[in-house]
Design brief:
The chain has 89 residues and is an alpha+beta fold. 19% of the residues lie in helices and 34% in strands. A 3-stranded mixed β-sheet has the order 1-4-5, with helices on one face.
Length: 89
């Protein structure tokens, strides 16, 4: 499992003009890629790490600050470009 995190003031995911996910105050966007071997233990580990990572203002975590996390599925985090310019999964 892989995750890319970004601190944001606010964020939204819009699909075909419809907002399908949104946070309206400072927090994190987590782009999360899942692969074949990932299971419940990996999900629990990455969720805990995201919640406890101290990267907000004053070295706070989302958990301690009560900050929201917008999680977005991002399968391209596992794309391989070893055999050319087109990613393969």
């Amino acid at each position: 499992m892989r995750a890319v995190l970004q601190r944001v003031a606010r964020a939204a995911v819009v699909v075909e003009g419809e907002t399908v996910g949104e946070i309206t105050r400072p927090g994190l966007v987590a782009l999360v890629g899942v692969t074949h071997g990932d299971g419940p233990a990996e999900v629990e580990t990455i969720a805990r790490k995201i919640a406890e990572l101290r990267i907000l203002a004053d070295e706070e975590s989302c958990e301690s600050a009560g900050a929201p996390v917008l999680v977005v599925s991002q399968f391209t985090l596992y794309g391989s470009t070893k055999k050319g310019r087109r990613p393969s999964w």
